[in-house]
Amino acid sequence: MGQVNPEAASGAAQGRDSCQFEAIVRFAAPWRTHPIAEEVLPAMQSTISGILHKPGDPHFLNPALMAPNAFEIDIPHDLIAELAPLTAETQGMRENRAQYRLSNGVSLFNERPLAWQSDICWLSHADEEAFHWFDAIYHRLGLGPLVAPFVPHDREIRLYAGFLVTRSHCTGLNMHCDWSTDDNLAFTLMAPLTVAGERLGMTYRTIRDEERELSYKLGRGLVFGTKFVHSTAIGQLDERAAFLCLNFGTDRMEHWDSIGSTTARQCNVLRQPDGTFTTQAQWRARYGDRKAY
Ligand SMILES: [Fe+2]
Q1: How remote is the CA of residue 190 from the centroid of ligand 1, in Å?
Q2: What is the pLDDT of residue 172?
Q3: Tens digits of per-residue pLDDT, 127-166?
Q4: Of 17-21, 49-53, 104-108, which range is least confident?
Q5: Do 82 and 145 belong together in one domain?
Q6: Among 93, 120, 133, which residue's Cα sits nearest to residue 109?
Q7: How many DSSP H helices and E strands does the chain contain?
Q8: How far does residue 89's CA lie from ligand 1's centre (Å)?
Q9: Is residue 4 part of a domain?
Q10: Rounded distance from Cα 174 to ligand 1 centre (Å)
Q11: I want to staple 241 with a disulfide (CB 3.0 to 4.6 A). Which of 104, 142, 196, 217 is the partner?
Q12: How far is the CA of 177 from the centre of ligand 1 (A)?
């Protein structure tokens, strides 16, 4: 749990060269000259291996991906097996803004970003009871304690929204950041739940401003925060690939304006940093009908 494979199966570890090394050195430079470097370096490895993180810095670097604020975690295979029959039920859930019910009683609401060049469906909890089903998965994965060192918060890292995401094709890139905040106040987990998810991956931008492909692996999830620029990769499948997606972060309400500008547009019911629930319509009424990406 929580261990990062620096040789990520994404292929992102390929093509290291002197420029990449220099970029890592530049990123790490403040620590190399820090008077307490011996104390800092062990702390850099305290929660997630395979990333460069200076304690107290809101950002970190994944040198294998050459990307900011991203790391991979293991997804237990027993969880994937438990979700498999439910994942299969999502294949036919395609109507925009329709509500569906899984065979375990969990109600889902479908939001489709129609401007994207993709048939992606974001199936989120349609009510609070369904939210708690996703919240149990979130706690099972141990995601909160994992990102807590990077996120300013008071008591806990909260789940805002959970999704079963499905898609079968993407004909054009829609490069974006999930979070419009300067610091790491919120994170996204994307983890494939079907083998098909390994064949329609992600395109992301490195810190050298290059585009790279990342292939998802069943049993692995990608966690990413602010300034991680990405899109569904261009591709076509003969079935809809399914993913688990979770949005989580700080419990401080003063950041909800910027955090909600993305996650509030993807679902109908969501939990706020203070633990209360709101709806997309209520969020828009309070903070404005803005397009975040
Ligand atoms: Fe995204």
Answers
A1: 9
A2: 92
A3: 999 999 999 999 999 999 999 989 999 999 999 999 999 9
A4: 17-21
A5: yes
A6: 93
A7: 7, 16
A8: 23
A9: no
A10: 9
A11: 196
A12: 6
